[in-house]
Amino acid sequence: xxAIEAVDxxxxxxxxxxxxxxxxxxQTLQDLIQCLEKTRTELSDAPDEDELAPSHSLIxxxxxxxxxxxxxxxxxEHKELHGNVxxxxxxxxxxxxxxxxxxxxxxxxxxKNMDKINQVICEHFxxxxxxxxxxEMIQETGLQIDETIKEPFLELHRxxxxxxxxxxxxxxxxxxxNRIRLQAKNSCLEFKLHRLKFIDLIxxxxxxxxxxxxxxxxFAQFAHTHCKEVQSLMGSLxxxxxxxENSPYSYLxxxxxxxDIADIFTRDACALLGLSVESPLSICVKAGCSALPPLLNxxxxxxxxQCSNVWSSKDELPVEIDLGPDLRYHSTFACPIxxxxxxxxxxxxxxxxxxxxxxxxxNKLANGNKFKCPYCPVEQSxxxxxxxxx
Amino acid sequence: MADLKxxxxxxxxxxxxxLNKRFRAAQKTIDREVSKxxxxxxxxxxxxxxSTVTVGQMKTAxxxxxxxxxxxxxxSEESIQExxxxxxxxxxxxxxxxxxxVSHPTQEAQWKKKRLDRxxxxxxxxxxxxxxxxxxxxxxxxxxxxxxxxxLMSKEIEESxxxxxxxxxxxxxxxxxxxxxxxxxxxxxxxxxxxxxxxVRQDQRLEAVGHARKYFTLTEESQLSVVQRVMGLLAFPKxxxxxxxxxxxxxxxxxxxxxxxxxxxFKLYQLSNxxxxxISLQAGLSAxxxxxxxxxxxxxxxxxxxxxSKHLNELAKDLPYAHCAQSRLICNITGQxxxxxxxxxxxxxxxxxxxxxxxxxxxxxxGVIVCPRTxxxxxxxxxxxxxxx
Lengths: 390, 389
Hints:
Shape of chain B: elongated
Number of helices of chain A: 13
Largest interface: A-B, 139 and 137 residues
Strand content of chain A: under 5%
Oligomer: heterodimer
Distance between the termini of chain B: 33 Å
Structural class of chain A: mainly alpha
Strand order of the largest sheet of chain A: 2-1-5
Shape of chain A: flat
Order of helices and strands of chain B: HHHHHHHHHHHHHHHEEHEEE
Radius of gyration of chain A: 38 Å
């Protein structure tokens, strides 16, 4: 990207010039020193009281002049380098935005808000298993974190670590304990855990096939829900001898299954605990990083057109920001007629023909109790419209 | 891409300012050593010009010049090394930023995680949580990409100010004299005032007067009234309850000195007052905020939505909503978007869900569906189509 390229160019120039200056000028100084030292050794033979030969004198004066000139040159060259150095700064200022003022009122100056922000950050650390950092933070900030909040994160992290090392035991215990709630959510976690264990046993070959068979008894409980899968797993027993890699069941050895299980476990555990899957802090900051460029752009436009007072309405952001389908957690309905977002006091209404407009629009367009849908000319009465909930 | 331009100015500007500072220091050193060497050469020259010159004199003069030259060489090497180091820090950060453009999705996620960690480290440093920021930087291996060294230095000065010591801060003012003067900084002046107040507090009024003679003579017009008030403190005992002298003796003045120092330190390195983390968080909260997150009966909450989570919900209360010019609907059951492939259907109670989710439920249940939000039971045939423009 050109912004980075521009700064990169300047910085490379600076580095080059410094390197050159250093190597050349150190050499120059070294030469000068050596030359003088040579003269010194020449003189050291003669006794101190002797007068200096005029030829020597002349050479010395010449050398002095030389040295003076060289030194001045060195100082001057170094000063010239400043031009390159300041170009770097200018490139940075030109290509990157330095001022965020005026976009949002500052939330951070409020102490109460700081406390809440610190809580969110601490939970973020707990969630990602950075437990010692979270501890340090709690100590340094004096946060009051409930032990009960920490517990589920610690357990989650412990089990995920074990899964990373292909140890299924903690996960199996957890799934067992929470079996009823998992089944209520239609989770296939426990089955997949057992399946992975079974495949592991089969992989170890002939010696373990009896153990594998005995383990397979665990699948009995999944007979209704995962019938077909249990059948194919049993079929894989046929290939214990020649190894699963060479059988139609090689897909069972796919390492993707391990990544998948960690993912499923995280999802189900979070659903059970009523937590979101990804840390809210990461999502928020990710959204913010996407949202800032359009906001900065519109601020520029507003300053140019001198209409910055339009932004004074603190109710809604001035521009629509599309965060992509991943970051859409709620339905947003904008009335096609009034182009306003629906709220508690202005909910969407479904007309008898099936079209949806906001209540305010409905009231505006209505003529007494009679009303004609703006999209299809179906006559209806206002009271027939039904409030809907997305 | 665009977010790099918006967010990474401090990342690059701070090492640049450091480079600039080192350059100026190097220039000063080189100039100083060059002039010293030239004095030695002038001595040598004078020796040569005098009518009689002995070998011995020659030898000493030569020694002097060689010594100065060697010193100059060493000093200039050191200075250039420091400058090059500072330039390399800049380069390293640019290389890191370049990685963002050329990454695959998984690498991009890693880079974004590092970015969040960088922002958090900066935020912690600004708040003064130095130990946490150090640990976090170590954990994510981002020490070179953050400005920890700069802030740790300022931490030492802040701590000394908290201990009511002014020496470290005065030293800092001296080191950055020219830039502070450009900024029209009053920090050094305020420090001297505070020293005066402390002398009065310890009843060393004569020393206080001497101190004032030394440092208050260069007062500007605007500051005159302030100085007069401070001088007036001489007349009152240290436990006076009369304003404004009582507030002059207040211990909290040290806190405002700490804050002033912090603010001016930021300005020196062209850092703005709000952290990048703060502004991103706010922008994100606003962009994600919908009326659903704040419905009075709490029915709209989605556990995955950050703004619906407890603390962020409170934080975002005063922020503007996301602007919505187009309807974007998702099914409450599956989270899938509602469009022509998954048309919205309304149940008799007014709740709307995606057709796919309702049909799937009906298949497993002999045509009967249960509204997840009200637990009412309906038949699939009762669901009516909804058309949203």
